[in-house]
Design goal:
261 residues, binds zinc ion, TIM Barrel, alpha/beta
Length: 261
Amino acid sequence: MKYSYHVHSTFSDGKVSIAKIIEHAKILGLDEVGISDHFHISVDDILIPCDMELNEFDNYINEIVSYEKQTNPKVKLGLEIEFVFETMDQLKKILFQKPLDYIIGSVHMINNKIIDSSIDSLPSNFCTDIVKEYWIKIRQMAECKFFDIVGHMDLTKKFNLKPKIDISKEIDAALNAIKEADMTVEVNTSGFYYPCKEQFPSTHLLKKCKKLGIPIIVTADAHLPEHLTRDFDKAFKLLKEIGYSKLAYFTKRKRFFTPLE
Ligand SMILES: [Zn+2]
Ligand SMILES: [Zn+2]
């Protein structure tokens, strides 16, 4: 089965409409394409520039649902949601009974600051406190047992900055929580195109996931239709070397598996 699930349209920071994405997915011969635009409920009502406006949310759902009967490719309704512990109850209320196929939970913000937009805007304690805090947030997100997929799990390496303290305890705690919550980890190929020059998460972390029996899915974090399956072959090869033999896919927030070919 060929599919791509981490995809952004003009509802958030993607470059083209949902219709254009679907059109290109068809050209690529995908069986399924999932749209996963950015969404989050902040504590102070501050909108992240790339996020969908709350009043656009129903239009987003309705547009994707309008493709419900289409089979070539099947169109899946996803979201990439910023994990904000304080607003989880509000979020659950908004998403209640929405016909979502999957939710990607991501952490792009620490202490209300975006950590992946530019290296120049990173605080001086980035390689110590912030990186540690990132993994604590990943653990807390898993502990909520609400999200299906962990988005770009080691995003803090994006600018090729290495932690200056030992964070192995926080990482292990996060991975154990992910296992405990039965979440799926995405292998996000967009990482190859940033200074870190490797997929999110790193091979070392993927090996740990394999040991724990954490399921995986390969995604591109596409903001352009041409990137829908960018470097998937590279990711598939790596995952086979690590010992993975199947990939997760989702329907109405239930997980299924397809062979890794
Ligand atoms: Zn993201
Ligand atoms: Zn994304």
